Amino acid sequence: MAIDKIILLTKKRWALPVLAVLAEGFHPRAYPLAQQLGGSRAAITQAILYLTELGLLTRHAGHGHPLRPELALTDKAKILAPAAVLAWRRMQENKILIPIYLQRWAFPVLACAVAPTKYAELRRGLPVTDRALSMSLKSLTQVNLLHREIDTQQYPPASYYRATPLGRRIVAPFEHV
């Protein structure tokens, strides 16, 4: 999957988990989704509106109250849904990783670092600030989703970032979408 699509899907913190939970058949309203995911109702509503803007969700005609509509996945979303569900399930296997997964740039950085990548290459490949990239790299390294290697054979020494097997396992569902 192109990195720009991953960036779009992770622009809102709860967008990918909402897509995954709806694809699994959970109740298609904001309040039950917020309870299921542990996010605020406002944040889940923003994610739902964002997914609707992307054309991944639509109101389920004839169902629900006009002020609390039920949602349905579009055909476009049904293509992405299996990958979102698999990635979300893999993150839930280790509850410590969920806050990292929900960070704005963690998933795109992890997707870019499947092969050894320098900081400058990540910075060029992602529309991210230096601070946000540094924070994402630090948090991903701390939870062992990303490995930092320093090549001292060259001058000046260079740092390379590479996804660990667990990190590659989490982003793998999106490689073929």
Query: Order of strands in the sheet with the most strands?
Result: 3-5-4
Q: Stretches where pLDDT falls below 50 for ≥5 residues?
A: none
In CATH's first tier, which class applies? Mainly Alpha
Output the number of helix runs: 10
> Looking at the structure, what is the overall shape?
elongated
Global structural class: alpha+beta
The assembly state of the depicted protein chains is: single chain
Sheet having the most strands = 3 strands, antiparallel
Number of discrete domains: 1
User: Mind telling me the C-alpha Rg?
Assistant: 17 Å
* CATH architecture field: Orthogonal Bundle
What string, H for helix and E for strand, traces the elements in order?
HHHHEEHHHEHHEEH
Approximate helicity band:
40-55%
CATH fold annotation: Arc Repressor Mutant, subunit A
| Percentage of residues in DSSP E strands | 15-25%
Mean pLDDT: 84
Distance between the termini: 5 Å
At the fourth level of CATH, the homologous superfamily is: Winged helix-like DNA-binding domain superfamily/Winged helix DNA-binding domain
Number of strands: 5
